[in-house]
UniProtKB/TrEMBL annotation:
CDD domains: MDR1. SMART domains: PKS_ER. GO terms for molecular function: oxidoreductase activity. PANTHER family: ZINC-TYPE ALCOHOL DEHYDROGENASE-LIKE PROTEIN C16A3.02C. The lineage of its organism: Bacteria, Bacillati, Actinomycetota, Actinomycetes, Streptosporangiales. It comes from Nocardiopsis dassonvillei (strain ATCC 23218 / DSM 43111 / CIP 107115 / JCM 7437 / KCTC 9190 / NBRC 14626 / NCTC 10488 / NRRL B-5397 / IMRU 509) (Actinomadura dassonvillei). InterPro entries: ADH-like_N, Chloroplast_QOR, ER, GroES-like_sf, NAD(P)-bd_dom_sf. Residues 10-313 form the Enoyl reductase (ER) domain. This is Alcohol dehydrogenase zinc-binding domain protein. It comes from the Bacteria. Pfam families: ADH_N (PF08240), ADH_zinc_N_2 (PF13602).
Length: 318
């Protein structure tokens, strides 16, 4: 089968498509024929080497965290899935490799794909959607009528946070690039502001802030109400370790005010995302669809910024 891999840190050009053996599912595992996979902006730091102090995975490394597809076969003890089932899911925590013809994952990393979406567009959601659900429901406990600020609102997680925040009854303010303001309003933002011309002190007070940028956290945290909560989901790309340590310290010193987590959803959380999509609370936003051979172009596009939603790799496209 084909799989995207890289064997050294570097620019997008280190990514290549390799021919590798098709894996077989072990006990409790499922082999999925991948239809599509999304490209996660967080992977840019892993590929470039900025996260080399965080992970010790060996080369060659794969790319891709979430995927959609159909069950090809199941291992011993698997009862929930049968060959042909349409599924979506995520690789095990801190394991990459979804951009491939097939993946093997524990059965708990899967849920039925939403019946109201095609498998291509649905690939924009498993990782981003479960992250937003955990951030707003478990960590921030966003309540109807509260004011929510989403910083970095047009990216993969940001646009879902806007949609979900509105569905949960919040008053949503989105910070985004000027050309994307009307677009993000169309997803439910009550107010959309240009991040380049809006200073933190120009904003009001918020009950919840979801940060997907990773810089100037202190200035934005100062915009919280007394009982406000910030969910920090990104780190300064130029100072990853310093940013990680600083945010972690904030979370330790004031755990009720700063929330920090690494997305590792349960089967129930992935199934909750399926229900949210089928109920119309969340819809996928796909910026660009590319074949597997153009994975480096996808990484270059993410590095350039201004993405609306997700880059999706159509694994089945020649």
């Amino acid at each position: 089968m084909r799989a995207v891999r890289y064997d050294r840190f570097g620019p997008p050009e280190v990514l290549r498509v390799d021919e590798v053996p098709t894996p077989s599912p072990g006990e409790g595992e499922v082999l999925v024929e991948v239809h599509a996979a999304s490209v996660d902006a967080a992977e840019l730091a892993f590929r470039s080497g900025r996260m080399r102090g965080i992970t010790r995975a060996r080369f060659p490394r794969g790319v891709g965290v979430d995927f959609t597809g159909r069950v090809a076969s199941v291992g011993a003890g698997v009862r929930a899935w049968r060959a042909g089932d349409a599924v979506w899911g995520l690789m095990p925590h801190f394991v990459f490799g979804a951009v491939a013809d097939h993946v093997v994952v524990p059965e708990r990393r899967l849920a039925s794909a939403p019946g109201n979406l095609g498998l291509l567009e649905a690939a924009a959601l498993p990782g981003a959607g479960t992250t937003a659900l955990t951030a707003l429901t478990d960590k921030a406990r966003l309540a109807p009528g509260e004011r929510l600020l989403v910083r970095g609102a047009t990216g993969g997680v940001g646009n879902v946070a806007v949609q979900l925040g509105k569905a949960l009854g919040a008053e949503v303010t989105a910070l985004a690039g000027a050309r994307n303001l009307d677009w993000i309003r169309g997803l439910g933002a009550d107010e959309a502001l240009d991040y380049r011309t809006t200073r933190p002190q120009d904003l009001g007070r918020f009950d919840v802030i979801v940060d997907l940028v990773g810089t100037d956290l202190g200035a934005y945290q100062a915009r919280l109400h007394r009982r406000g909560r910030m969910v920090a989901l990104a780190f300064d790309p130029d100072r990853v370790l310093r940013s990680l340590l600083g945010t972690g310290l904030r979370a330790v010193v004031r755990p009720g005010r700063t929330k920090l987590f690494s997305n590792d959803p349960s089967a129930e959380r992935i199934a909750e995302l399926t229900r949210a999509v089928e109920e119309g609370k969340i819809r996928p936003m796909v910026d660009t669809v590319l074949p597997m051979a153009d994975i480096a172009e996808a990484h270059r596009g993410l590095e350039a910024g201004g993405v609306r939603g997700k880059y999706v790799i159509d694994v089945r496209r020649p």
